[in-house]
Write a structure and sequence with these properties.
Length: 447
């Protein structure tokens, strides 16, 4: 074989290897299931006696806390992190198997912590004693799931009185008895015309009055079920499902629903699902995943993929765009509003490189930006932000519009993080809960 042919074949082989490598990386990013890493445990025995349900002074019963704002009512936290935080307990059994990745955040009511998980064939729900880490009860149901970023649940549960609602990535909405885990009813949004999105159903259930509301997509973009029986009360709109939680908003002294779906933000009548208005917001892959922020009659929303952010002044009959820019692009990490300023991560949520920014809500003006704390998620507690990057490191940040102020950090607060640690930190009753796939870690935040 002539020399130039050998060289050409070598070049072709190298190019094919490069294409194959990057093709695999793209496939893994879009459709792959992140393999579990770190210690994995078998499920422990249940507590011998089921303790009575208690309530705390700073519970976190639903997505982003009691008011969907990402803020904890805990006060008096430890702000000197030079010697770390006390680890109270850790469990490593929430995912059973190497390809069962789950991302749902926990919710907490008193001594009850609820967090979903997965084994090879089943969606699982764990009720853990929030004080001790002991397993109170475990529930499950069989559910077929594809492997795009793992078959486990993404949506955060919702605790309502003595019941808890979960929503699986394959569309199963379930109601459980909070005390002992009895499965009271289960429905699937596909039975109502719902269509599963590329990365699975992810919208946290919203319990409002007598309803529990989720996004179904397809012919049932939003669905309201009777929270006691699971009967369908109404279905509204058609189209591409989003990945954002439904929330309520008081508009002109009336409660309305905000649904951030795949192609925009819609305002609905909660009693019957009637659409009142829709803000077009078509994002690549229909990924509108963050939770809108409400301040009086202003709604702020943000998406990645080059979309940016927008602030709206709303009424029951419509809206006015106050400003729209690309300063902050929150892909699926929720910003937080503090004293008229928005704080949050901007950029691609699969790499630990990004910007953490502060914006003025009224104008959209960027106050400052930093790349010192990677890319990640954040929660607010006692005048501070706790930020977790995708590697499992956590940072204590004082939110000030005058400049970035990092007050402390703890490296590897979550062990053995080899894939992005996407799950948002949760702060309840003086404790910090960090979840990464099969792991759930509890730290003491109090002095």
């Amino acid at each position: 074989m002539k020399k130039y042919l050998k060289i050409a074949l070598v070049i072709v082989a190298i190019l094919l290897a490069i294409v194959g490598y990057f093709g695999y990386q793209i496939y893994k990013m879009v459709m792959g299931s992140e393999p579990l890493t770190g210690k994995q445990e078998v499920m422990p025995s249940l507590m011998a006696t089921i303790p009575p349900i208690t309530k705390g002074v700073a519970d976190w019963p639903s997505w982003r806390g009691a008011n969907f704002e990402g803020k904890s009512a805990t006060i008096g936290i430890k702000t000197d992190w030079s010697n770390g935080l006390e680890k109270l307990w850790q469990v490593n059994y929430l995912c059973q198997g190497k390809a069962t990745a789950s991302w749902s955040a926990p919710v907490v009511l008193g001594n009850r912590l609820i967090v979903p998980g997965r084994d090879v064939n089943n969606d699982m729900v764990f009720c853990i004693n929030s004080e001790t880490g002991e397993l109170i009860w475990m529930g499950s149901y069989e559910s077929k799931a594809e492997t795009a970023h793992g078959p486990g649940p993404r949506a955060t549960p919702f605790i309502d009185d003595n019941k808890v609602y979960t929503f699986g990535r394959s569309g199963d909405l379930a109601c459980w008895q909070l005390e002992d885990g009895e499965l009271l009813w289960r429905k699937n949004v596909k039975d109502e015309g719902g269509v599963e999105p590329s990365w699975g159903f992810s919208t946290t259930p919203l319990v409002f009055e007598n309803m529990v509301i989720v996004q179904g997509g397809g012919k049932a973009l939003a669905i309201a079920y009777d929270k006691l029986t699971g009967d369908v009360l109404w279905k509204s709109m058609e189209g591409e499902v989003g990945y954002s939680a439904a929330i309520t908003m008081n508009i002109e002294n009336e409660n309305k629903l905000l649904i951030y779906h795949g192609t925009g933000l819609s305002c609905l009548e909660p009693k019957d699902g009637k659409p009142l208005w829709t803000v077009p917001w078509l994002t690549d892959y229909f990924v509108n995943a963050t939770t809108p922020i409400i301040s009086g009659d202003i709604v702020f929303h943000s998406s990645g993929y080059g979309m940016g952010s927008q602030a709206l002044k709303v009424t029951k009959s419509g809206y006015t765009v106050l400003w729209s820019n690309k300063v902050l692009e929150a892909q699926h990490t929720d910003p937080i509003l503090i004293d008229g300023f928005i704080y949050g991560y901007s950029g691609e949520s699969s790499r630990n490189t990004g910007q953490f920014k502060c914006l003025e809500l009224s104008s959209g003006k960027e106050m400052w930006s930093t790349n010192e704390i990677g890319q990640g998620t954040t929660a607010f507690v006692d005048g501070h932000l706790i930020c977790q990057d995708l590697k499992g490191n956590i940072y204590l940040v004082k939110p000030e519009p005058t400049g970035f102020n990092k007050m402390g950090e703890i490296k590897s607060a979550v062990d053995d993080v080899k894939n992005p640690a996407w799950t948002v930190p949760v702060v309840a009753n003086g404790k910090l809960y960090l979840r990464y796939m099969q792991q759930l870690v509890c730290y003491n935040l109090m002095p």
